[in-house]
Amino acid sequence: MLILTSPTIQGKEIIKYYGLVAGDALLGANLYKDLFSGVRDVVGGRTSKYEEELTAARNLAMESMIEEAEKEGANAIIGTRITYNNLGGTMGNTIMVTVVGTAVSYQE
């Protein structure tokens, strides 16, 4: 599956647009406690455990989006965007990762 942030596929003809596809993943509220209450693994001011969790959530959201596109029959997703939102409120410090794009078929 070809995944692009651009709205076109350079040098290729898009033959069908299927519409928006999306994937979501949540990082649990206990992540902050786990990261900052125990031994911190900080390298260059960055917390590697937190980055690992964000990467895992982003990958899960991407996989979900790809599955949705494949069900439609698409072979590419264009205009892909990734957002991170702190849900706050009753959800504590839960972070939601959302990936959205347009599923298309292009002439290979």
Please render the helix and strand layout as text:
Elements: E1 2-3, E2 14-27, H1 30-37, E3 42-43, E4 46-47, H2 48-72, E5 76-86, E6 95-106
Parallel strand pairs: 1-5
Antiparallel strand pairs: 2-6, 3-4, 5-6
Give your account of this protein's structure:
This protein is an alpha+beta fold and 108 residues long. It has one domain (2-106): 2-Layer Sandwich (Translation Initiation Factor IF3). 31% of the residues lie in helices and 40% in strands. It contains two helices and six strands. It has helices at residues 30-37, 48-72, and strands at 2-3, 14-27, 42-43, 46-47, 76-86, 95-106. The strands form two sheets. The chain has a four-stranded mixed beta sheet. The chain has a two-stranded antiparallel sheet with strand order 3-4. Mean pLDDT is 84; it is low at 37-43.
Which features would summarize this protein structure in a list?
single chain, 108 residues, alpha+beta, Translation Initiation Factor IF3, four-stranded mixed beta sheet, two-stranded antiparallel ribbon, 2 helices
* Sheet with most strands: 4 strands, mixed
Question: CATH superfamily membership, which one?
Answer: Hypothetical protein apc22750. Chain B
- How much helix, percentage-wise, in residues? 25-40%
Q: Could you tell me the mean pLDDT?
A: 84
Give the overall silhouette: elongated
Q: Could you give the order of strands across the largest sheet?
A: 1-5-6-2
Rounded radius of gyration (Å): 17 Å
Query: How many distinct folded domains?
Result: 1
Q: Which range does the strand content fall in?
A: 35-45%
The H-and-E topology, N to C, reads as EEHEEHEE
Distance between the termini: 12 Å
What name does the CATH topology carry? Translation Initiation Factor IF3
Number of E-state strands: 6
Low-confidence stretches: 37-43
* Class from helix and strand fractions: alpha+beta
The CATH architecture can be named as 2-Layer Sandwich
The tally of helices reads: 2
Reading off the top of the CATH hierarchy, the class is best stated as Alpha Beta
